[in-house]
Design a protein that fits this description.
Layout (H helix, E strand, L loop, with lengths): L2 H62 L8 H13 L11 H65 L8 H14 L12 H66 L8 E4 L2 E4 L10 E3 L2 E3 L14 E3 L4 E3 L12 E2 L1
Antiparallel strand pairs: 1-2, 3-4, 5-6, 6-7
Helix pairs in contact: 1-2, 1-3, 2-3, 3-4, 3-5, 4-5
Amino acid sequence: MSRRRRVVVAAASAAVVMVLVGIFVYKAWDAGVESDLAEATEALHTVVLELHAAVDTSETVLASSDGRVADDQVRVDLAAVASGVDELSWSLPRSSRQARTVAATGLAEQARTHVSAVESATGLVLVAVDAFELEQAARLEGEATGRLALSITDGRATLDAKAGQVLDDAVRVTLSDALASAEALKPALVDETLPAVEQTQIRAAATAALTLHADALDAARQGVVDAQVAWQAEQDRVAAEQAAQAAQAAEEASRAQEQATTRPQAPAPSSSTNGSTTVRPRASGGAEASTTGGGPSVPTPLSGPAPERGYTTETQTGTWCDSGDTSGAEGTGGWC
């Protein structure tokens, strides 16, 4: 082969190599551009999804925090930040791949900024909610403590006042046990360096324990009160029964006395002749004396002794006075 031919072959080979190298370099560059665009697009998509999730969380927090923060301004700020996201567009421009890659990268950074802003505003609301819940838990614990103290005072007073005034003393034993358990309850110790959520949980548990003891104490006290009412009702029933019996006995005694007082006495036999009255008093021996007209007539007794005492007979003209003669003779005596 001549020298010239060898030069031509060498030049052609070099050109082919250069073309091949150029093709390889172009493909490598094109692949790099495509890869960069894909990576930027994927990163943008990921951060946009994070932003949407952050906005969804913020909306949930906004709804659940209504009325649960001391200052509602934090909720107003969160709502403003979250609503601004809806106005953003994440579309890439219709241009070269390099330009789209740059745009995707910029939008991803912008989305990350919004994610941070939404999450920060959401966090402030959550902190405000935690502080509010802790304050409420402390308030409820204080109220429960005061209620238990009052229940202990009332329970102790009831236990002391109702001694011997219940039908079954078991209710007083129950109240005494409830008092001992309530008085032995120790106050909760809260480490204020703990997160607010944990402090709230401790105080809520303490409130539940205080309320449980107060409820048990109040129920036991009510049991004693009910038992005392039942005891009093029984006392009233017995007293009423005794009063009824006494009233019935008094009524029966009064009725018997009334009957004895109003029972009629048998009158002495008497007769009247010609305007005069004849009275025959019964003597001790069973004889009767009679008077007719102006003078008495004492018959001789049929049997037994003569009357030992005189008598007085009132007539229309005067009074006949017996002389006290016991001989039985008629006409003894005279008008007084």
